[in-house]
Design brief:
mainly beta; Neuraminidase; globular
Length: 254
């Protein structure tokens, strides 16, 4: 599948985890700038939405009007000049930035990566740690922040690097694993199943779900987006070129 590609802005530092606001502006994690950036289609300019420090990796708007973001201080060989602990951060409309959680069940986070809100309002995220497939084995985690603000480890995984994550309408949580290329679903009853696998060489990074329930998975080393149906059948590949990290549907969709 080929579609027209429009470059909206350039000169960013590892842009990740985009989200379209209700007014049409697009926020994103501008990792190497240690900020949540924003691009305005009306002015065609990019600016800083919030200075969060560290290395933000994904962001999205909450129902309270605040922007929630994952904080991963180290990305490969890059180390943030202004350190922040691995955490979930909350940026208020007035510019105030606070750290919500840094640990779950007494275990400090290694490196929160992507996040999503479930239909019940709880915040889920992947805690993948640093990118080191061969030199730094560590467990991956799926974590949920309860409505009382406490974080809980829901799944403790092997050395798989859980990455993009989405919530389905029935409350199931789906994530991708960069090291295994797997697409995994966890149902509300706790059962877990590998439902699909990316093509060889297509390392999964970002993940979004469309209105039909299909999964759109950015292939960071594949130059595009792989599309799977909700049962894990590979449907198509959208060729984009470049090093594509994440994606989002308009108006906050998916």
């Amino acid at each position: 599948m080929k579609k027209p590609i429009t470059v909206c802005t350039t000169g960013l530092g590892h842009p990740e985890g985009p989200y379209e606001l209700d007014d049409g502006r697009v926020i994103y994690a501008n990792t190497y700038a240690s900020a949540i950036g924003v691009w305005d289609p009306k002015t065609d300019k990019a600016a800083v939405y919030a200075d969060v420090g560290g290395g933000p990796n994904a962001c999205m708007l909450g129902s309270d009007g605040c922007v929630y973001s994952t904080q991963t201080p180290n990305v490969g060989s890059w180390v943030a000049p202004v350190h922040r602990p691995p955490s979930i951060q909350k940026s208020h409309p007035n510019g105030k930035v606070e750290i919500l959680v840094t640990e779950a069940d007494g275990v400090k986070f290694d490196g929160p990566n992507d996040l999503t809100f479930a239909p019940d309002g709880r915040l889920w995220f992947t805690d993948s740690g640093d990118w080191a497939p061969d030199t730094k084995p560590h467990k991956g985690r799926i974590v949920v922040v309860e409505k009382n603000g406490k974080a809980k480890i829901v799944e403790e995984l092997a050395h798989v690097y859980p990455n993009g994550i989405v919530a389905e309408k029935d409350g199931s949580i789906v994530w991708v694993e960069s090291y295994t290329l797997n697409v995994v679903r966890r149902k509300p009853d706790g059962t877990k199943k590998v439902i699909g696998r990316m093509p060889e060489g297509h390392i999964p990074d970002g993940l979004k779900i469309d209105e039909k329930g299909n999964f759109w998975i950015t292939a960071v080393a594949g130059g595009g987006v792989d599309v799977f149906d909700r049962d894990g059948k590979h449907l198509d590949f959208l060729e984009t070129g470049g090093t594509i990290l994440n994606c989002v549907f308009g108006k906050g969709g998916g």
